[in-house]
Design brief:
About 40% of the residues lie in helices and about 10% in strands. It contains four helices and four strands.
């Protein structure tokens, strides 16, 4: 096998430090500081990956607290930040916004899995909840009547 001049067979090119790679990838100049409110979790990703993502966070985004998100059992990264998303309701077809504040509540307070997302507008969500509540009340009433007939 012919060898290239100046290279030994087992020589590997030297790697650049991460900070140099990140700066070059984003262009000349210093990196942005980390946004306030952003919290890293060692279970979610490496500190370097998190810092790189957070420095690229859009100005209109809301930073995520990775320690409050439900655990992810996949090879994907967590949500580093939340942005308003325009959606179409699957029930009525209306356009609605799944706001960054709503996403932060869903994923950090309610701890809904990150792969879940809002696909119904607020009015249709309320209507669906009410229908489920009525269905549950009806089933409980039927069960109570059945139990009453069996015992009485």
């Amino acid at each position: 096998m012919p060898q290239r001049s100046g290279h030994k067979p087992n020589d590997k090119p030297k790697k650049k430090p991460k900070s140099e790679k990140t700066t070059k990838a984003r262009g000349a100049g210093p990196l942005r500081p980390l946004p306030e409110g952003a919290v890293w979790s060692p279970e979610a990703c490496s500190r370097e990956r998190w810092e790189e993502a957070m420095r690229g966070m859009p100005d209109d985004a809301l930073p995520a607290d990775l320690t409050k998100q439900a655990p992810i059992s996949s090879y994907s990264y967590p949500e580093f930040w939340y942005r308003d998303e325009e959606r179409t309701c699957v029930d009525c077809g209306a356009e609605f916004v799944f706001s960054a504040k709503d996403q932060k509540f869903w994923y950090e307070v309610a701890r809904i899995p990150l792969h879940a997302t809002a696909n119904r507008c607020l009015a249709c969500r309320h209507q669906r909840r009410e229908a489920k509540r009525q269905n549950k009340a009806h089933m409980e009433k039927l069960e109570a009547e059945r139990t009453k007939k069996e015992t009485g």
